[in-house]
Amino acid sequence: MNKNILKHIIRYLLMICIVIVCCTIFRFSSEQSTESSRTSVGVTKFIVSIIWQDNPEVNTDTLINTIHPIIRKVAHFSIYLLLGTLVMCCAQTFKGCKEYKFDVSVMLCFFYACTDEFHQGFVDGRSPKFFDVCIDTCGAFTAIVIMIGINILIKKIMTERDRNEDLGTVY
């Protein structure tokens, strides 16, 4: 298959995945506060039940109340980590300067985080929080930096491999 066609197929698949992740974020942001709390408390209870199962020394209610806010923030970070990964992978399929790909990827994720929090302002019991935008952007930024690091590592490995192959043909 032509390399250019494969690149376009991958690009469109990544765009579809980006839309799916954005729709998932929008759906979670559309939940009213009681439903959102119920969802995140359910996840927290599940995590507590796995890690501290059948431990009589642990007061699970106190533990759930303590780690629930952390779980909510980790969820923000994680979903934007995924979004940042997809956006940066998609950006890599385009020609152009690496710095622009980085900048555009971070700005797109930041913009979506801002619109997500703005949207929450219209949902009963929810309110926009700039801190959440910061957490979301940090998740995306982390993924984008990791993707750049992986890209640099792959290029170094391939360059080294090509150099070794070239040296092997000289002898």
Provide a descriptive summary of the structure in words.
The structure is a single chain. The mean pLDDT is 89. Helix 1 packs antiparallel against helix 3 (60-92). The relative contact order is 0.12. With 171 residues, this protein is mainly α. The longest helix has 41 residues, at 130-170. The protein is built from five helices and no strands.
Number of strands: 0
Q: How many alpha or pi helices? A: 5
Measured by DSSP, the beta-strand proportion falls in under 5%
Shape: globular
Mean pLDDT: 89
State the assembly state of the protein chains.
single chain
**What characterizes the major β-sheet?**
none
CA-atom Rg in angstroms: 21 Å
Span between N and C termini?
34 Å
Helical residue percent band: over 70%
Given as residue ranges, the uncertain stretches (5+ residues, pLDDT < 50) are: none
Structural class: mainly alpha
Please provide the ordered H/E string of secondary-structure elements.
Answer: HHHHH
Tags for this model:
mainly alpha; single chain; 171 residues; globular
Protein topology:
Blueprint: H1 3-30, H2 33-51, H3 60-92, H4 98-120, H5 130-170
Helix pairs in contact: 1-3, 1-4, 2-3, 3-4, 3-5, 4-5
Can I get a quick summary?
The protein is 84% helix and 0% strand. It is mainly α and 171 residues long. The two termini are 34 Å apart.
